[in-house]
Amino acid sequence: SGFMELVRTETWLEKRPDANGRIEAVNITAEIWTEAMQSALDADGALHIPARLQPYYIDGPLVLRSGQKLSADLLAEIRLKPDCNTCLVRNANAASFSDKPVSSDTTLDTDISIEGGIWTSLAVSSAESNGNVRGYSSRRNPAFGTHGVVLLQNVRRVHVANVTIRESRAFAVHLANAHEFTVENIKLDNHRRDGVHVNGPASDGLIRNVSGVSHDDT
Predict the structure, then answer these.
(1) Exposure of 11 in the CB half-sphere (CA atoms within 13 A)
(2) Helix, strand or coil, per DSSP, at residue 180
(3) Is pLDDT at 218 greater than 70 in this prediction?
(4) What does DSSP assign to residue 63?
């Protein structure tokens, strides 16, 4: 409640299927919660998102640093605003090592927890993604190859649980250079890409109870 002044209201077009399944553009006026949620997380080291009738829109990723915890009610829906083209939540030091070995002095984010919530980037049909086709780490200068709804790269002791990923074009959970991690109880609600996608190096990880509909590797 101490950060409500950072919630702003915007209007945009969002493409959705009508009752007959045809895609139509709908005028949306809604609150954008990114700054308020991030400020609360930075101040307290933890953030809980309660359920409500309306979804929460964000226009970029929520960023967790070492030791931080993000939780949401199982029915709290967090939506990525159209045309943002990023992940919805990630660790602070996400980076790519696709073209070189991982350096021994690489900084890992540690002891991060993400639990609960319904997360979607609004890929509402097989052909319509509302401009959110990649799960980049950021809107500007993203780390090469990042492509997740939940993005955890360069991490140790991270936990992702009881999360629903709904109608998104990026990997549900994208891990890389991840160690001592647990990903469990992940529901894929008409998800349009990989479920849990792991790039190396990775070690001592546990992935279990991934269920639902995925249009690529579960």
Answers:
(1) 2
(2) strand
(3) no
(4) E
